[in-house]
Amino acid sequence: METVSRKTITVDVNGEQYEREVDVRRLLIHFIRDDLDLTGSHIGCDTGNCGACSVLVDGVLVKSCMMLAVQAEGAKIETVEGLAAEGELNDLQQAFSDHHALQCGYCTPGMLMSATALLRENKTPSEDEIRKSIQGNICRCTGYVNIVEAIQAVSR
Amino acid sequence: MLLREVEYARPASVQEALRLLGANEGARALAGGQTLINVMKARAASPDVLIDLADIGELRGIELGADGTLELGAMTTYTDIINSAEARARPILGEVCNQIADVQVRNRGTIGGNVCSNDPTNHLPPLLVAIGATMTIVGQDGERSVPAAEFFLGVYMTAAGPGELLTKISVPPGKSDGFASVPIGKEGTCIVNVAASLNGGAGARLAIGCVDAVPVLLTPDSTEGDAVRKAVREANLDPPWDVHASADYRRHLAEVLALRAVAQAAGRK
Amino acid sequence: MTETTVTPERALVVEEGDVKPGFIGQSVPRKEDKRLVQGEGVFFDDVKRHEMGYVHFVRSPYAHARIKSVDVSKAHELDGVYGTLTGDEVAILTDPFFELSTAPGANIKDYALAVGRVRHVGDPVAAVVARTRELARDAAELVEVEYEPLPHVLDGEESLKDEVVLHEEAGSNTVWSGVFDWGDFDAALADADHVVRIERLHFDRFSSTPLECSGCLVEYNRGTAQWTIHGNHQMPGVGAIWMAPALRVGIDKLRFVSQDIGGGFGNKITLHPQYTACCLLARKLNRPVQWTEWRTDQHTANTHGNERTFLDVTVPVKADGTMLGFSVRAIDDCGAFPRYEPLGCIIWAQVTPGCYRWRNIRVDFTQVCTNKSPVAPNRGYSRMQHLWLTERIVDIVAGELGLDPIEVRKKNYVKHEEFPYETPNGCIYDSGDYARCLDIALDLIGYDSLEEKRRDAESRGKLLGIGIGSTLDSGTNNFGQSMILNPELQFSGNNEVATVKLDIFGEVVVTLGTVPQGQGHETTASQVVADILGCTPDQVNVRAGHDTYWNSTAGFSGTYASQFAVTGLGAVKGATEKLAGEMKQLAAAVFGCSPDDIELVESQARIKGNPEAALPFMALGAILNANNAGLPPELDVTLNVRHVYRPPFEKPDLERKYGNLTLTYATQIHACALEIDPETGVYEIVDYAAVDDCGNRIHPQIVEGQVHGATAQALGAATHEIFTYDEEGNLLTPNFYDYHVPHALDMPPLKTGFIESESPFTPLGAKGMGEGGGAGIHAVCAALQNALGRRGEGPIVWRSCNPYEGVWDLVQKPEQTRKLVSVESR
After folding, report:
1. In the CATH scheme, what is the homologous superfamily, with its name and number, of domain C44-150+214-292?
2. What ipTM does the predicted assembly reach?
């Protein structure tokens, strides 16, 4: 086995296949945003603390700024763009809007992916469990109050 | 921010990983990446080669032996430990893993990465020292076991040297454990943490984190408050100063948290 | 974690009693949401241009140094590098940015890149542009800069001595200095029964750190010499005023475009240096260039909130607890470059006596430069620091004299009957009921069971404290206050623009001059328009974002200073009312009746009492635009109305530093209960209530969201968020790892309440709100003091940020802070 500095990778993102050649050093978030033009996932920090880049990789919630694109070779990635079916908001997205769980919307894609991961595993989370599930997502606008409320609304 | 140029390989076996590590002087093993990728983004360290351990099945899995010993593959994630029925043989493991950062980090971060990076503020080094875990290291010369208390050598330095891999961590059974910390914000980075374990005798094993390059192991011969306090004071801790705490404050917290960790452990006898 | 109540069960009284008709006052669905929850928002970094280059700034590792040489040759050798920019080029191609201060501050030379000297760690020295982000980063490492380090100064008081001077052209670190003296403080002092003296208080450096970093993508059109800046500048009106003269072009050559912005909080107002560098690069390299700020750069080299030291606070008090005023010496540390400063030196005067009826106030105010990050109007700008002072004064005085801080507040608060209330320096507090808000906050937090809570905490080894934070969010500035600082400045009043039109197919289209970063402007504007035109918000199309090409902007356009509900919506209301008038005139011309006979209802113009005679909007739009033969020649309508809202301001009296500086004053009264672990200094907020009064609430849910957000930011600033520097001038909290902001688990149970004291001065009776005045900081400090203080003994909470070790110090060494306070009783 040899080492390489560039690699061709194939990923499935929201049900669509993509094949691209990338530098090994390219972060998954930059690959998603710049190479695949899926700009719904965002970048808010340098140190893996803010969670704006959160996506699901093979069903697992990760911060895509702490993964290399090549580590996602062959994976099934889900981003915010895959939540609404043909422009129809899903229940979680609608709840976010109904409960004013977003102001500037920058943390929102990451929050939605974290909430999606939570609700797949636990359909009736307690308030503490909800807060713990979004602990890795920083919001500077809402104080999290309405975000928690929106997730609670969907989980009743 | 952004990594320097780097080479990459994803071997399927420990042997192949060791070969690649040996063949490339600037090579580092890549586990969950929750530390290493950030370090590389900041360009604080820039290995020439990353050996991604993700495909190596031998490094995964949690096994519970007949004698109650837990064997955790080095690539076991914090989430794996939290969700593992077997890991409940040593409940403190899951409890402490559940305090680390957030769910995204827990899904990718590994027990092996946590101990091999040996950041002084990490949770697992003091915990594993206190509960008397054993590390299995594999290198070109074969396999060897190193007790946790001898595994941590310096800041970001462990007994797993260049060209070697930590493959598993063995944890003896036990329930009389405690862990106390003061983190920055809920479930944030630790300012000081202390792990305590009662070994069945009258005394305790105490490992203090965040106060030195490696966890500071103390073995007071009694769990009485005075004995614990004495042990901590006689350790003559010389903690670092940083923006979160002065040396004095860390020294003080070490004492308070040692008492609390021991009390917690004693409460679970 | 106990439950989080969003609004209390009992209906809290709305001043006016009735439910308001129409959409104003309702929490209609937000227009912005549909795109944002699908990840279809357009933030500047989402915009791409063919063959664009990515910018990385080379930044100073020194707090203060001479630049001996900058060598970019090795960077140019790297394959994929498109070009560079250095300070030498900038000094030739541009003029220094306009300074707001008088001399010596006026003489500061501030450029897009460091020229000759670097003045803080992170100061940009050169820029590299490359094909990819990674290559730009690589190339930046190849730029060789030779520095000659100089002594540096990191403390405001130290800087006053001018032993280390940052700007040689200015010759002094003092940016601005002046004394404000209203009433008769000496007489008040003579009249006092007690004089409480506080040697020092310190408001710490922090910022609201919006999640989206600053940035832009700049294109240069060579044919028209026009730049288009896709960015997130939140006050482009002022950005252009800085950039155009520097670039030696007319203002119309700078087009600012933004759609969605990930939070601003005042930290995206002084982006002109980086934007100017990007403009030069776009022109020089003949390609679009894109710059995205790194989180580390935002913390080290964008902006912080003002850091302020209050010295020699002197408070004359009567025996019954009435305070007569105060005097203070304030030193404001604005970092390496003033930029928007020295406006902070006067903005606090909007709230000179805080919430209180104090008539005798003397403030000796000096602003200095230090080798730290420059400051900008961070959320609560300058008023927050001053209001924190007034609240510390109230709590410390109450504590030292053995008075109940609740009673002392009520005794000293401006009373409900006294509004509109003129402060000692001529500001008019429009309306409010502080005592009532306080009662609501106390009720929400279960104040009656305080003693029981204290005993319960003690049984668990904890110390309970309850504290109040009263604060004001003054909104809609009179920029004439800048003339008090510098009479030569030609800024006064304020304005905002809106354009509302009826298209050919009857579609209502609104263009705002504001630059929203999450405040829901599209939605609230549509509510106002819908009520006036008699349609629904869904039928009102508000263009998303901001674009100076839409010709709907003026000199003060942007979103800042808690003013949208007044200025932005004032402009919308004015434009829509004019449009409505034109629609009625047109319908009247068609029907052959008087415009007074026409009403706009259900998206139609129709004759009152004769619903059959109706013209739908589509007909009106079509008639004027495409089918207008036969209309009376004197009918002068365009159905495309641009309106500039101008708040009613006078130029202030510069001699007395007197006049109305702000149009509206929203109230925030917060109550905080916390428990301290005295063994460790760790504390937890166990209960929290935020009561807000911003007049008529256009969209209650949006208002409440702002209250939540402002509270969270204030709690962060009170507990962990602080920009601390080491001795070399390195920022020790340059990222979210060390700079801990509140995460979901950090938030206390948060209860909110409201009243609505309509403003008599604004088009909609609404007041600007959003900044929040830092009430959380005031409340936490008060609660810590309450938990630890004992009359005449006990520590004094003297800093705005109190991390765990700080609290432990207060517990361990009360004598150290105790000596900051003395009481002279006569």
Report:
1. Aldehyde oxidase/xanthine dehydrogenase, a/b hammerhead (3.90.1170.50)
2. 0.98
